[in-house]
Amino acid sequence: MNTVSCSALSKTFHQGEEEITGLDDVSLEVEAGDFVCLSGPSGSGKTTLLNAIGGLDTPDSGEITVGGQRVDQLSRGELADLRLHKIGFVFQAYNLIPVLSARENVELVMQVQGVPVQERRQRSSRVLEEVGLTGMEGRRPGELSGGQQQRVAVARAIVSKPTLVLADEPTANLDSHSAAQLMNLFMELNTQRGITFVIATHDTRVMAYARRLISMRDGRIVSDVQQQPHAMAV
Amino acid sequence: MGLPWGSVATLAWRNLWRNRRRTVIMLLAIAVGVWAMVFMASLMRGMTDQMVRNGLQSLPGEVQIHHPDYRADPSVVNSMAPPAPALRAALEAAPVAAWSGRVRVPAVIASERDSRGVTLLGVDPLAEQAIGALPGELVAGRFLESADDRGLVIGAKLASRLETGLGKRVVIMSQDPNNDVADRGARVVGIYRARLQGNEDRFVYGGRTALQDMLGIEEMISEIAVTANDYRHVDQWYPQLAVAAGTELETLPWTELDGFLGTMLAVQDGLSLIIMVVIFIALSFGLVNTLVMAVFERVREIGLMQALGMRPGLIVLQIMLESLYLLCLGLLLGNLLAVATIKPLESGVDISSVASAMEMMGMGTVLYPVLASFDMLMSTAVVVILGLLASIAPAWRASRLDPVKALNKH
């Protein structure tokens, strides 16, 4: 069964008088449990495609279905609900809320979901342990390293038990060691929990983890290949 | 799914203190604004109270009972008999504190130099004292000793206009029930100075029985003035007097007897509200600016919350809560400041330097600010309601941010 299905997506941006093609007739199917990397240079349309799948951006034309739900036809509120319950996001710039501790950042999504406090506490402890942040639950983002912050962001993305995690350049601000730790964590979550990953990156080390590597250029998919993933040494 | 109040409230509270200096400045501005609202209202309430009290002193009483035609034609023809037993019983019972039957007719007073139109009051000095209607200050001679006193007490201003003085004889003229002239000579036994200058050349006091004799009306009187020392709640207690007086007589509260005074009281709350709203509108610019800045600084975070699945309504709620915290803290500080500064002034503020202007408005030389819980509640309502209204625009703007643009904002 497909988790993500995109059909003939197009999107253009206007920068002054210039028209920039974000997506140009992109069609894509991502199966449940897949581990996909979108690669390509800056401006190739990776982030635009990721944002469209996550309902953060609306394509000019085409259809997107996530978990059987037509994303391009949902209202703002319905899109918010879809992201809340089915999609986890990991961004390049960690994007944690600075006034909340690591645990509070992780619990925020569950609070919005209405998860009872006891369960919230258990799940956040478990997931923070999973990402290797036991003992750092009370620290605020400013007190954590870049790698630790990104792991909090991953914990936040997976704690709500999403079926799909969309990650945009998740290793861009990390050193090799932290990047390898993060990608190994992604692999683990993918294989053990069956979470589907779609990762936009131009980092070749990250691409090596993918079972499916999609290359983009000028808003188009130029290649789509299955490959044997191999992890980096931490 | 219920609202995640806990997380939204925590976020709002912590965000409030991210820019501590800005929050403290805004808090102080709100607190000073609230203080100004309550302080202004307490001064206005004090002024109004005093104006009403002074007005009631010359009315006098909080309730008056007349012949139904007396107010349209206040002549001796429209006099009434002394109170019947039922009315007398009501006048002697609580909540009535005192009452006075009075003769009150238009008259002319003449000295050997001049004559003036006046209102002649035939009073029983003891009853008059009980309802607090004696003239403000006696500057020469004495007040009437009894209802039989045949002397007259006139105002200092009138004495000056008539070029008369203490011990001099004057003539008073009015109409008797047959429309014939009723007059008699009398000696000026006292000269008074009134709290309100206008009353000084208007009211001439004489003994009630002496004037009844002169007018030939036996025991008839023009009015019964009643006080319960509770002018604010007169509507609650005067109807029982009206019932006891019967339909043959007209029983009216002070709010209807003196439209200006009645309106004063009604206008005071409205005026306080207007002043509070004006003060808050000035404040609201600062509040909106604070919230707009707070939203502007957190565009990325708001984009992130949208990406994480926070509905637009929750983002509005968070910004509004932030505003509510700020408003509530400002209210607390402002009200505490108001209590601390107004309470010590309740014993009176000397305003004698501007007394002449104040006297024209029916006030004395000492102002007594009144700290009323109603004013504090009204300022709280104004601040919370208008503050939240002013916060809607920045909150709404935050909720409508494009998440992609917001997340990419540096």
Could you provide a short overview of the structure?
The complex is a heterodimer of chains A (234) and B (410). Chain A is of the alpha/beta class.
Structure explained in plain terms:
The complex is a heterodimer of chains A (234) and B (410). In chain A, the strands form 2 sheets. A 6-stranded mixed beta sheet of chain A has the order 6-7-8-3-9-10, sandwiched between helices. Chain A starts with a strand and ends in an 8-residue tail after the last strand. The longest helix of chain A has 18 residues, at 176-193. Chain A has one domain: 3-Layer(aba) Sandwich (Rossmann fold). In chain A, α3 packs across α4 and α3 (102-113) runs parallel beside α5 (146-159). Chain A is globular. Chain A has 7 helices and 10 strands. Chain A has helices spanning 46-53, 76-86, 102-113, 117-130, 146-159, 176-193, 204-207; strands at residues 2-15, 18-31, 35-39, 61-66, 69-70, 87-90, 164-168, 196-201, 212-217, 220-226. By secondary structure, chain A is an alpha/beta fold. Chain B has 2 domains: 5-55 and 262-407, no CATH class; 61-257, no CATH class. In chain B, β6 (169-175) and β7 form a beta hairpin. Chain B starts with a helix and ends with a helix. Chain B is of the alpha+beta class and 410 residues long. Chain B has helices spanning 5-16, 20-58, 85-92, 125-130, 156-162, 197-200, 208-215, 234-245, 254-257, 259-297, 299-308, 312-342, 355-360, 373-399, 403-407, and strands at 63-66, 98-110, 115-123, 137-141, 152-155, 169-175, 181-193, 203-207, 223-227, 250-253, 349-350, 366-367. Chain B contains 15 helices and 12 strands. Chain B has a 6-stranded mixed β-barrel. Chain B has a two-stranded antiparallel ribbon with strand order 11-12. Chain B is elongated. The A-B interface holds A 51, 54, 56-57, 76-77, 80-85, 87, 89, 91, 95, 97-100, 104, 107-109, 111-114, 156 and B 1-2, 4, 6-7, 10-11, 14-15, 18, 300-301, 304-314, 403-404, 407.
